[in-house]
Amino acid sequence: MAASPKLTRRQLLKGTAAAGALGMLGSLNWTGQAWAADKVKMGFIFVGPRDDYGYNQAHFEGKSAVAKLDWVKAFDEEKVPETIEVQKTMESMVKLDGAQVLFPTSFGYFDPHILKVAPQFPHIQFLHCGGLYQEGKHPKNVGSYFGYIDESQYIAGIVAGGMSKTGKLGFVAAKPIPQVLRNINNYTLGARSIKPNTTVNVIFTGDWSLPVREAEATNSLVDQGIDVVTCHVDSPKVVITTSEKRGIYCTGYHCNQSKLAPKGYLTGAEWNWAKVYMDYAEMIRKGQPIPHLVRGGLKEGLVRVSDYNQVVTEAVRKQADEAKAKFMSGQMVVYKGPIKDNTGRVVIAAGKEHVQTDIWLESTDWLVEGVVGSTKS
Amino acid sequence: MDIGWWGVVIAVLGGAIRIGTPFLFVSLGECLTEKSGRINLGLEGTLVMGAMTGYAVSLHSGSPWLGVVCAGLAGMVLGALHSWLCSFQRVNDIAVGIAMMLFGTGLAFFLGKPYIQPSAPRLPSIDLGAWSDIPQLKAALQINALFLIGIIVAIALGWMLKNTAWGLKVRVVGESSDAARALGLPVDRIRIMSTAQGGFLAGIGGSYLSLYYPFNWSEGLSSGQGLMAVALVIFARWQPMACLWVSLLWGGAAALGPSLQSVGITGGYYIFNAIPYIMTLAVMIITCSPRRTLVGVPHELTVTR
After folding, report:
1. CA–CA min distance A12, chain B (Å)
2. Which among A21, A320, A370, B255 is most buried, taking Cβ atoms within 10 Å?
3. Separation of alpha carbons A323 and A329, rounded Å
């Protein structure tokens, strides 16, 4: 598509790259002098549409927030598949748009695509959303950022458990990967922290975007007496609208879906990427070194909880806010033993605890007691 | 109310209607098209285009039914285009169909960009379950008028193909274009008409997806349902009434996976989700025989010629 202009630009860039290299000799801070006078140029790449009420929209909202700063120039491309396409997009963002930092936001962009392109542009930062970066193993101009959204799911679980009359919650999930399982576990632990008999029925649909099956799953859950449902799929829109039509409560994921279900949307676990992107922009402007790993939860402001629906009772709000305050002060430890999985096996022994940053949690392959479901495919 | 295992039965019953309706429309459209001796693989694109058009028109006009009609018209245009291209000498309808499929989905994604976010007015439901006091059964029997229209179309199409002069012409063109020409029938025109009408039905099937169930416009909406419906026509042996039963069967089978998980059958969900496809393969294998040809197959179809 852009093959012919690319060639001419490449020749142009050879000159500028040489100039840039000279600047880099002086310090490791490539951002410092070279671009100081100019705007900070940030490129964002999304795997799906910007306005999907889901994962991509959450990132796009972050991009939009940072784009409002008058010293930032932000550009994005949506619907870029996790194939050689994303390599082309990254290259053109660097060469044609002059991006200083790229945010390829999808999980599958990392290996092999970022790993292939990053070494070609050592003066550009490639910051990936997800937990795949490893110090020492991956190129120096690569880093990763991610939020502990399971903390928000814990709060949403409290609200869901508190508002449920049947004590049965539902969870429509795409695939049993660690991040999804952590969300399910936190949701369940949150609900059971206030009502220990609550159960959470999980339905795995098998893929990230299957609208018909997501609607079917929601209907089946409602038929089984579930009265609050949530999900972890790319776009929660179908699950939220289906639950509203069936007249039950729901809690959202990725971004705020209250408009889709004004009656039933209790609260939701949301990303707050604006915070992350603003921080990065600031660091680049000031010429500070870019950290390789950025992580955080409610306390760091990387994730948040949607405003409670007016139907959420005072008592439930209080319980949720108490837990939130604990997260904000850093005292909350969700994975504190004894914790059993849903087959009765003790996963975390009494007296042991795993704090949020514990790498052990990133290999979660079990479902906590109270979940009806199985990770077996 | 705790209904336990009955939940699976109700889900399959409800799913047969909910999921089966778009299959029904697309397969009826393809059935008519193939009866005239042409294959339209582009119906996947027509379905997606219909879904987008229906959603967009419903949003702008406030009338979901106007959306359904416009979705049908969009499908009709795509069908006519397909058939017009195929009417040239030595143009392969399979290849054109694949091109039309990509064209239809691509165009729908391009034009549908602004409609992912907003919520359009939804098609109303009809409560057939008002007699029951089981809420789950009530919900499963909430159906859309399009399903009833689909049944009427299936009956009418079957009757017309068999008993009217128009139906006879379509069948002659599909059986032998040489014979049709000898009779003085305008072969290309009849095929273009049949394919356009088939496209109209497929477009309506698309609008059912975006305007009723799952009620959403997004790029993952169809996930291959238009293609499956083409296979379904072979399964149904080119009989409109059989299309109805097969659509219901597939709809029910597609509902089985999620509902089994909801009652606690948690293992093997990939297998359960694949049941409609496994079923198709099984039926194909059981019914195929080297000693006879398929019953009801139009002989002008490129795949059988």
Report:
1. 33
2. B255
3. 10
